Amino acid sequence: IGRLVIGQNGILSTPAVSCIIRKIKAAGGIILTASHSPGGPGGEFGVKFEVANGGPAPDIVSDKIYQISKTLEEYAICPDLRVDLSRIGRQEFDLENKFKPFRVEIVDSVDIYLNLLRTIFDFNAIRNLLTGPNQIKIRIDAMNGVMGPYVRRILCDELGAPANSAINCIPLEDFGGQPPDPNLTYATALLEAMRGGEYGFGAAFDADGDRYMILGQNGFFVNASDSLAIIAANLSCIPYFCQMGVRGFGRSMPTSTALDKVAKVMKVPVYETPTGWRYFSNLMDSGRCSLCGEESFGTG
């Protein structure tokens, strides 16, 4: 590897990593993530490897990596390498002349992803919803994971939601001592705020930003299956789908058949997959799936 691209301060959401991989035509990406587990120095973390399409490595790639790992005879480390993760820009290092030079590029964590979102969603309509005469108040909980910079930059700065709409937006190694899982058990601060009736829409994000929970007014819980079906039923509101059309839907096996009912009316196929994002990636790469989701609030 001769070049690394890293988010500022080491922070990138999983969808942003996928976006950057595709944007710069990288060979792949490595994500160090707590995902479903509590992180921190004494906690757990996982390693996700994404391939050039921005999706998780398929089984054939993972198996090949494992086979190669059994034949390695040596490896080298560079304990003295110091990279300033806070400074945006290119830094170059001479690592015993193995690479000339070894290049590390620090990029803004939000920029590239935000530019992609602008091409997908109707930002003017959303901004009017949050700031216009019939505005709704929203409450967004980043749960001290990586989503803090995205929530503040996109929802508050770009789309006009008041700064106090966003809570727990500082990424912390231990997520403030609470598992960063967006559900009714752990997103209690959001739930209590929504129950008061002041806010019309609420959402919480997980540690690495690829899962969410939605709450309606008075704390009404929108489960993952219904959330996916609601999005599918309203694709005509999203410019991306108006331009690209709808080829099909995908859902994981534990997800309810609410999506199937929408698909039947829209006359598009539904593909039921095992749990795991790689199966959705296969459907998307083959041109069969335009919208997909799983039981744990991951939607793409």
Automatic annotation (TrEMBL):
It comes from the Eukaryota. Residues 10-75, 113-218, 237-298 form the Alpha-D-phosphohexomutase alpha/beta/alpha domain. GO terms for cellular component: adherens junction; cell-substrate junction; cytosol; sarcolemma. One of its GO terms (biological process) is striated muscle tissue development. Pfam families: PGM_PMM_I, PGM_PMM_II, PGM_PMM_III. Signal peptide: none annotated. Keywords: Phosphoprotein. Transmembrane segments: none annotated. The keyword Phosphoprotein applies. GO terms for molecular function: phosphoglucomutase activity. Belongs to the phosphohexose mutase family. This is Phosphoglucomutase-like 5. It comes from Balearica regulorum gibbericeps.
